[in-house]
Amino acid sequence: MKRIYSIIVVSLLLASLGIYNYIDGRKSETMLSNGGVSLEDFKPKAGQLSPAQELPDFNEQMISFGSAQPKLQLINFWASWCGPCELEAPDLQKIHEKYSNSLVLYGVNATKDDRERQARQFVEDQGFTFDILFDREGDITNLYKVGTFPTSFLVDRDGVIRERINGVITLEQWERIIEQYM
């Protein structure tokens, strides 16, 4: 009986070690594929590196965002049912038009919490001409720890989050923030 017990204990220890090594290896792979940013340790706040991400756009083309890029990035999480999102929509379009030479605006629809058909209609009704991305699984929305809509992140050219904005701010406030990092 002691022998069976010993075999079970040793087997459990070896299995635990194997699982730990697998998880540790996956974490290293994740860090390498995201420019050294561990997705487990990612805290979406000013000063943190933003991990490279990819989502499908309005035409199902995969768009990369979040990491170092030649322009500033404004990543805006929204939903079609969100009243404040509708309120800020005209300002986002104005920001895109005014700063398109130095800033890329990504509108990330929280599709898991929305209806894609309604989101597409919202985009058409608003006349958006910036990139609209669909987070159908909710992974990116969860990664950025978005709990309210709209939530926006300003990411600099080095891929560092410079601002996190929860809720709606005025166009003038947006302009001051953006121009500070240009």
Automatic annotation (TrEMBL):
Keywords: Disulfide bond, Membrane, Transmembrane, Transmembrane helix. Residues 44-182 form the Thioredoxin domain. Gene3D superfamilies: Glutaredoxin. The chain crosses the membrane at residues 6-23. Coiled coil: none annotated. It holds the Pfam family AhpC-TSA. It comes from the Bacteria. Signal peptide: none annotated. GO terms for molecular function: antioxidant activity; oxidoreductase activity. This is TlpA family protein disulfide reductase. It comes from Candidatus Pristimantibacillus lignocellulolyticus.
